[in-house]
Automatic annotation (TrEMBL):
Record key words, sorted: Carbohydrate metabolism, Glycosidase, Hydrolase, Polysaccharide degradation, Secreted, Signal, Xylan degradation
UniProt name for this protein: Beta-xylanase
Family named by the database record: Belongs to the glycosyl hydrolase 10 (cellulase F) family.
Coiled-coil residues: none
GO terms, molecular function: cellulose binding; endo-1,4-beta-xylanase activity
Gene Ontology terms: biological process: xylan catabolic process
Location in or out of the cell: Secreted
Ranges for domain GH10: 18-337
Known catalytic reactions: Endohydrolysis of (1->4)-beta-D-xylosidic linkages in xylans
Residues in the signal sequence: 1-21
Keyword Hydrolase: yes
């Protein structure tokens, strides 16, 4: 069936178009992603210039709290919960009309000492973990697009990290955590999130085993978050990242780049900034190429507030905006991957189908073929529709069209 409304909307410019002027999020949505986003943190929000750019939905359609939803922030004392700082970020997302990625529930780091140094049995730690998850997820119910339920459970060789959770409970802590999160908010997407799982290898294989483990317990797992804390010049190729993403999505889960930044040894040079731009472009292009890659989040947008210099001695300049909130070449690299710096041609017949459309994009740097993730899923004329075709799930809709994955 031909949906003339999609053609009309596209021709009239109602659907997101790929133009020079489009920001990162606008271009990402036009390319079929759900969002392009940034992490942020409470102390930075007093910087009005920073806040203004963060709130610019043309660039950022999603934000993630960098620290304020972690266990040490939300349950510093057993069964005493504090949501004040996390609520500031959640409210900001709501005010700005941005999606919120919620981060994180179970992680070996930034734990309060009552957890990390407590005396636990299998039963008592399961109870404490479930109580934490239930309270935090319930508090933010309906506000998060996704939760990073378990963060960084793996060693580099793909074996389990010896966290308090693994050594006390064993691998069952993962499905137990996912099941508790699903019970508290059945609608929110539930993710496993880790670093160094962005190209094929032992750790990526370990993360795929976690997906299968959770599924084998009958618990819900919706996605895998690839942190993507990269180094300029050592970023995995687009090809390696594309192959890797496909291995995850073949398991029936979606994927997202959740903490992208690409650091360099300081001082930065023009050559390093150019390579950084290429590395950003390759990574975002890998996401665009996979129909189940829903978004990219950078781990703060400006070098001014990046976590990198305080964590990796002598390194920095990892973000697409510099210390003065001026865009770096990396910004253009991301936009190139999103088709934002060139022209885009999409055939009307492809647009009109209820299946995922294939978009051919001609960027200034060359030609590439990507997969558009959106589809006009129902209705007719200018009112559009919000019902997805059979076999598709509606992940976003507005008055004009639905996004169906
Ligand atoms: O002193 C601490 C300070 O060290 C802390 O820094 C944060 C550490 O976590 C960072 O985010 C993580 C980066 O990579 C992945 O491993 C994780 O998934 C992320 O959560 C965050 O950006 C830093 O700000 O902040 C609190 C201070 O008290």
């Amino acid at each position: 069936m031909v949906h003339l409304s999609a053609i009309a909307l596209a021709l009239a410019g109602v659907l997101p178009q790929l133009t020079q002027a489009a920001g990162l999020n606008t271009a990402a949505v036009a390319k079929g992603l759900l969002y392009f986003g940034s992490a942020t943190d409470n102390p930075e929000l007093t910087d009005s210039a920073y806040l203004t750019q963060l709130s610019n939905r043309d660039d950022f359609g999603q934000i993630t709290p960098g620290n304020s939803q972690k266990w040490d922030a939300t349950e510093p004392t057993q069964n005493t919960f504090s949501f004040t700082k996390g609520d500031v970020i959640a409210d900001l997302a709501s005010t700005n009309g941005q999606k919120l990625r919620c981060h994180n529930l179970v992680w070996h780091s930034q734990l309060p000492s009552w957890v990390s140094s407590g005396t636990w049995t299998n039963a008592t730690l399961i109870a404490a973990m479930k109580n934490h998850i239930t309270n935090v997820v319930t508090h933010y119910k309906g506000k998060c697009y996704a939760w990073d339920v378990v963060n960084e459970a793996l060693n580099e060789d793909g074996s389990y990290r010896s966290s308090i959770f693994y050594t006390t409970i064993g691998e069952a802590y993962l499905p137990i955590a996912f099941a508790a999160a699903a019970a508290a908010d059945p609608s929110v997407k539930l993710y496993y999130n880790d670093y160094n799982i962005e190209s094929p290898g032992s750790k990526s294989t370990g993360a795929q085993k976690i997906v299968k483990l959770v599924q084998s317990y009958g618990a819900k797992i919706d996605g895998v978050g690839l942190q993507a804390h990269f180094i300029v010049g050592s970023t995995p190729s687009k090809s390696a990242q594309t192959t890797n993403l496909a291995a995850f999505t073949a398991l029936g889960v979606e994927v997202a780049y959740t903490e992208l930044d690409i650091r360099m040894t300081l001082p930065s040079t023009a050559a390093l900034l150019a390579q950084q731009s290429t590395d950003y472009q390759d990574t975002v292009a890998a996401c665009v190429a996979n129909a189940k890659c829903v978004g990219v989040t950078i781990w703060d947008y400006t070098d001014k507030y990046s976590w990198v210099p305080s964590t990796f001695s002598g390194q920095g300049a990892a973000c697409p905006w510099d210390d003065n909130l001026v865009k770096k070449p990396a910004y253009t690299g991301i936009l190139n991957a999103l088709g934002g710096s060139g022209s885009s041609t999409t055939t009307a017949t492809t647009l009109a189908t209820t299946t995922k459309a294939t978009t051919t994009t001609t960027a200034s740097s060359g030609s590439s073929t990507g997969v558009a993730h959106w589809g006009q899923c129902g209705g007719s004329g200018w009112t559009g529709g919000t019902t997805c075709a059979s076999g598709y799930t509606c992940t976003y809709s507005n008055a004009w069209y639905s996004q169906c994955l």
